[in-house]
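Field: COMPLEX_INPUT
Field: COMPONENT_COUNT = two
Field: RESIDUE_TOTAL = 1079
Field: MODE = joint
Values follow.
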Amino acid sequence: MKRILLAEDEEVLRMLIVDALEDSDFLIDEAADGGEALRLFKINEYDLVILDYMMPVYSGLEVIEKIRKEFRNDKTKIMMLSAKSQQYEQERILEAGANYFMAKPFSPLKLIEKIEEIADEA
Amino acid sequence: MKHKHPFKKSLSRQFAVLMAGFLAFFIAGSSLLLFFQSYLNSRFNADRDKLVYLEKRSVEINRAFNKAFFDVRGYLALDNESLLQSAQAQEAIIHNLSRQVKQAALTSEDNSMAHSIDDFSVYYFKETLPKVVKDVNLGRKDLVKKLAASTSTAKVNSFQNSLDQYQKNVNNRLDNRVKDLMASQRNLQVVFIIFMVIVLLAVYLILRIMFKSAGRPLAFLAESANEIAAGREAELSVVNREDEIGALSAAFKKMVLSLQDKEKDLLAQNEELSAQQDELHAQQDELQHTLDILRQNEMNLNRRNQLIHQISNSLDKEEVLRSIVKSMCQLISADKGIITLLDSSEYASFGVSDRGVSQFRENIYNGLNDRLLSSREIYTIKREQEPAEKGFHDEIFYIYDLYLPVISSENTVMAIMVFSRFGSPFLQEQRAEFTALAKQIGLSLEKINIYEKSEKDRRLNQDIIDSVQEGIQLLDQKGNIVQINRQLAERFFPKTEQEGLLWEKWTELFEAEVEDFPGFLAFLQNSLKCENQGENEGNSFTYRVKDNSQVIKVYCENVFHNRMKVGTVLVHRDITREFEIDKMKSEFVSTVSHELRTPLASVLGFTELLLNRTLKPERQKKYLTTIYQEAERLTSLINDFLDVQRMESGSQTYEMKYTEIDPILMKVIEHQKIGISSMIDIVLELDSVKKHAVFCDPGKIEQVFTNLLSNAVKYSPNGGRITVSVHQDLKKLVIEVKDEGLGIPEEAIDKLFQKFYRIDNSDRRKIGGTGLGLAIVNEIVKAHRGEISVESEYGRGSLFRVSLPLAAGESDTGEDGTHIESAKETIQVMLIEDDKSLAELLREELLQKGMNVRSFTNGEAALSALREHIPDAIVLDIMLEKGSIDGWTFMKTLKKNSAYTDIPIFVSSALEEKEKGISHGAKDYLIKPYKLSQLSSTIMKSLEENGTRGLIHIPEN
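Field: COMPLEX_OUTPUT
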């Protein structure tokens, strides 16, 4: 069973994603901010990390940088959810080390599709 | 005839022989005399010494005999042996003395004396004394007496007499010796005198001979020489002698002859020389004359050079005019002069009185100048001296006036010069020279005119570019600064020399100031290479100033002159504000988009799930509720955005009314109480029964407290008491909203009222909100000239304090809510406006805002109406109807009367003279056209600031 870390400060959106993925076979850990996400990341091993861009404590971008540079983890896939959908923001996010990018508002069905695709790849 | 005698040949030899002879004679004579005298002396001394010696011995002998006689008598008498012995001892002494006498004997007398002494001695000591002694010893004194009486006594006496005689003889001989010496010395003196006479005679003879043989011929020669030297004929009969004098006189004669020859030669030469000298004198005079002319010319040239130098050296017109007049006066030896320009009022004079100058300049186009202006040629006038010019002279002198036009290159007279010279006329060739000088002056003046014009243009250009807000710099092809405007200079080169700075230098100065200098430098280099043009993107560069993080955009334009590139203009524009606004805008857009997308994501996501999945009814309801809540959040977000946008852009309008706060607070609390947790208790505390009225927009104030209360509720997730209290603090109404909730971290307090600020705290994230609530509260409170502050203890709760200015007078009314309406009606406004339709519009507006309006079209009418009733405010137009005083006069009249000075005047005029209006005492000045609401709000605000006296005392009906 694949394990997913979901970091999103909006409770409603976390609920949406968790609910959308309820039929799939994933173990999902939820974090409400960047700090919590990093704490969980250190404890557990995840196949996929889904990060919101704007989060308290550490932003999504900072979390990516910490995972990739500080923890030297290139293996774990990272998906960034962001309301900042401009091209240059996307580039910045991918450059920082994210593997996927999904713009808010997103389609939960497409998100499931994408996540399953990633899980299959892994 | 010749004498072979050697003495004749030499005077000195003659003289030497004479002197030698004389000296020999003199020395021989005197030494003879001296020797003779010393011989006499020494002989005398020797005789005298011996005589004295003999005398002394004879005395001693006498004494010795006497002693012997005495002792013998003593012996005889006393029979003392020792006395006998003493007498016998005398014999040896006497013998000795007699021997001495013999040795020193000079004459036979001495010798015989000596012998008789010896004889007596023998007789006495050898014969008589032993007999006596024998007799005595035998005691036969009688025999002794007999002996004595017989012979011995007689012998002794005769001996003693002869001894005395001898002594006397010696003395006599001594006296004779002295007498002899004296006599011989007298003789010697006579001989000496004779000798001296002979010597003197000899000297006389020698001198006489010397004079004869040398002195006289020399004197004769000297006299002849003097005669010849004096140029007279002198007989030079050669002294026929062979000695030096003869040689001298021969040589002298020869010399005289040769001198006479030489003199003749010299005289001839002298004549020749004097002729030559005359010639030289003539030449010298000629040269001197030429030199004078040359010098004169040189001086003229110098002065001319000086003139040209001075007038070309300066570009200051006044200075140049002064030096022209001065130099020209020197150059033409004028006593006074003036130059005056025709196209301007500038002039300069030398030696002319002020009165003279102004008189000349007043009549510049009349009189004599007229001729000058038309002929454009130099001319002179001869006139008699004026009495003032005469000084102390009473003769008649003439003065020559020189009128000299300065001709421009366009052949017009640009200046007139007049010079006066006392006494000497101007010559024709001088005039030509002066005309040439005038031409030179003309050129210089034209040059100055051109310079002044270009300088003026340059200044104008500099002023223009200085007045531009942007920094401008003009670079030459190499990048050196040619010109720079003030803005740029002050920003980057505060103290250095600004123009003419080399590329290296000024870019170095920039390096210290500019962030990303390499990029800036690259841009500058491209600009110089013509690669950037205009202000388009890419052709400009934006840099930040290090100190104040100003953002400056610089763009370049090449400057062409006749299609040739002459330089590059760089324009530095401060876009800090635009940049910041831009940044804020993009941040705002970005934040807004984020804030909107989040609820939108929920709405769309859950809708998608609802549409695509078969869900249980509870799940469906939960999703729909979520969708509804998120949609509501979206709505309130959009409303808040719009509010903030309006408030920030200033387009938010407030409907200001006198409003009681208490009912609003009650209403808000009631609203908040709906559907909150039972753990929260909301309490309203009022400090008194008084009604608290403020001048505000009730809707907005309601929004303020709704936001504050909902925050308090939201941030009290664990319940608690929320207290809303109202109290009066001086002229302010203070409303406090206090909760016992989460509190605010200290570092967050400053940022609390910023847009989209939400405290980074996961607890708080759950609470939600737009992040705009407090920003809106802040804007509204500020718009009401109120204040908002926060006190908070993290984890213990927060206190928001809003203070609003109290509406004055409300406390006196004690009326119910309707009083607000009546208060509004009591503001009395006097409207003075001649345009009737505009007056009607204004009246409508003011009436709508609840004010009472009396309209006037005429200033005087308004003034007389003031006497009956003093309004709370006057709205005044400046341009009033014909025949009326204008607004300025109206204001002046009002301000003179102390009863009216307090009435606030609001000028409403099309004239853009706000400053004048304010200085005349206007409270505010609105320039037509303006929004109608602006007038009423201005009046309201102003009245409120002033304590709204109208509200206090105006009773109505």
